[in-house]
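Dock manganese (III) ion; give full complex structure.
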Amino acid sequence: MQKTFIILLTLLLSGIGLKSQDRSKTVFTFDPLPYAYDALEKAIDAQTMEIHYSRHHRAYYDNFMKAIAGTDLEYMSLGDIMAHISNYPAAVRNNAGGYFNHSLFWTVMSPDGGQPEGALLQALNESFGSLEAFKKQFEQAAATRFGSGWAWLSMDVGGKLFISSTPNQDNPLMDVVNEKGTPILALDVWEHAYYLRYQNKRASYISAFWDVVNWKEVARRYAEAMKHGQ
Ligand code: MN3
């Protein structure tokens, strides 16, 4: 009887020990830019890319790390943090958002991103009528965002594509936004993203963006979102 109790107690304690060892911190990486600063010159100048990546993006990352230090958020996925963002301080919302949004933005641009094709092109045609109509609606969302923010192409829970825009560093994964979904394409329309070359001409920056969209990556994200049912 006593022996059984000791065995049970040992199992219980080792179980607890295992559990606390399993509780490892999430690794939020500051990934390298996947191309040179001057690679997107067709649309974005090298100096803008360098400042945007090495200073703005870096600051969002560093401040996100500071904002979650010593809290349970250090153990959560970025997706879970976004899904419950209304529970957390503004420093988390702004900097987790800034970190996520820019990390996505860098990957959906490329000097040789091709054109939309296959399942993605079909979905764009079905949702917006044509590729041109999609571009027009996306440009409209980017152009009419007052002040700082982002334009998005996302997939909703039903697997349908939609366009939206968010203020500041909010994004479609956050519980605070009206139109929720999984973003697969993003455009930063903060002035820091375009002012050196385009000054107040945001529309010129937006139309030049199409020259550097990484459609292969957007298609990969589309397929991934379809697979996960959202
Ligand atoms: Mn930015």
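Observed: The radius of gyration is 21 Å.
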